[in-house]
Design goal:
Elements lengths: L6 H18 L11 H11 L4 H14 L3 H6 L2 H8 L5 H17 L8 H4 L7 H12 L8 H11 L8 H14 L5 H14 L18 H4 L16 E12 L2 E6 L10 E2 L1 E5 L12 H8 L1 E6 L3 E4 L3 E12 L8 H4 L2 E3 L1 H6 L4 H10 L2
Parallel strand pairs: 1-7
Antiparallel strand pairs: 1-2, 1-4, 2-3, 2-8, 5-7, 6-7
This protein binds iron/sulfur cluster (SF4).
């Protein structure tokens, strides 16, 4: 027998995967709720990290912001701080923005269809489908990396998951398979099956409920499916941080503009296109001036921070000042002194936290 397009296949695939789910699912807190706020939080957090790492974030968010109203009323800095370490801070800002809309414009009630949910900041097709299928029982399929993998392997779909055609095909396929009476369980089943059984490397084909009919297994195509040809262009950036230390405090500034770290705090930054030594950076007027007021300057080891589209190589120069130079325009740079307790509480990129942990805390 082979999985093909027919109604019996729909029953067969859906039933088998849901049976597998009922016997193998991990017991996770967001699996026992239909509360859209809880589901939304879990989905947004899990887009950033694996379940084990995401769980403490989920619990912390609910502890700090038990309802959408609490999240809406929170200061952005608190939200960023709770999100710290997950990366892609625009997601945390959108979470906050959307909480405000739901709390103030919608009386705290989440929209009851995926189409309405899609209009909210930061909610894409995946999150909208996850919230609405689980909270409202809407028959709409969730399509994430796990779903692409499972469907492409089981049904032998070779279309590029990054192409429009491929996306259409996978969404169409998933929406054909989803049963009208259990959309919530079906969606969670496919995602869980992809996450723990039909994994990217070493899928457990020997113990698989789809094993006999699975296209990838029969044709030994597990390593070639799904097809993803779009290559991400990675940009290399070199950050030289000047960490100004004075009177047991450090100077930091809030990042402005539209970058991914907007709203987070870091040090005075000199960015260059290449790997350089300290002396090469002395063309920077602030660093040059600081040098004359310092007792000594410590150089850190290089830190590598990998993001999807960029690799950042950072070095930190801690400048220990014996006197604060009055004429240096720290205010214009947005720099201010923070003591140890304040430093702990500021929202920071993970790169900065790693350096502070290694050097100061
Ligand atoms: S047989 Fe292997 S490749 Fe096919 S669905 Fe099962 S685990 Fe995945």
């Amino acid at each position: 027998m082979k999985f093909e397009e027919s109604s019996s296949v729909k029953t067969s695939f859906s039933e088998r995967i849901m049976l597998w789910y009922s016997q193998n699912k991990r017991d996770l807190p967001w699996r026992n709720t239909k509360n859209p706020y809880h589901i939304w939080l879990s989905e947004v957090i899990l887009q950033q990290t694996r379940v084990n790492q995401g769980l403490p974030y989920y619990e912390r968010f609910l502890e700090l912001f038990p309802t959408v109203h609490h999240l809406a009323k929170a200061d952005e800095r608190e939200v960023l701080r709770a999100w710290q370490g997950l990366g892609y801070y625009s997601r945390a800002r959108n979470l906050h923005k959307t909480a405000k809309i739901i709390s103030t414009d919608m009386g705290g009630r989440f929209p009851d269809t995926s189409l309405k949910l899609l209009k909210l900041p930061g909610i894409g097709p995946y999150t909208a489908a996850a919230i609405s299928s689980i909270a409202n029982g809407e028959q709409v399929a969730v399509v994430d990396g796990n779903v692409f993998r499972v469907l492409s392997r089981v049904f032998g779909i070779h279309d590029d998951i990054g192409s429009n055609k491929g996306q259409k095909l996978f969404y169409g396929k998933a929406n054909k398979l989803i049963p009208h009476d259990r959309p919530d369980i079906f969606n969670q089943s496919v995602m869980e099956f992809g996450a723990v059984h039909c994994t990217p490397k070493n899928p457990d084909c020997g113990n698989c409920p789809m094993g006999v009919e699975c296209y990838a297994r029969i044709n030994q195509q597990q390593d070639n499916l799904p097809v993803k040809s779009k290559k991400v262009k990675v940009r290399q950036r070199f950050f030289y941080y000047v960490c100004i230390s004075y009177n047991n405090s450090l100077m930091m500034k809030e990042r402005k503009g539209s970058g991914i770290w907007r709203g987070l705090f870091d040090f005075y930054l000199i960015e260059r296109n290449e790997q350089l030594e300290f002396n090469d950076l002395l063309d920077d007027p602030i660093l040059k001036r600081l040098e004359t007021y310092s007792d000594h300057i410590e150089e850190s080891k290089p830190y590598k921070h990998i993001l999807t589209h960029q690799h950042i190589i950072a070095k930190f120069y801690t400048v220990h000042l014996h006197q604060m130079p009055k004429e240096t325009d720290f205010v214009r740079e947005g720099l201010a002194l923070y003591n140890a307790q304040e430093l702990i509480e500021l929202p920071k990129p993970v790169l900065i936290s790693a350096y502070l942990k290694d050097s100061f805390f």
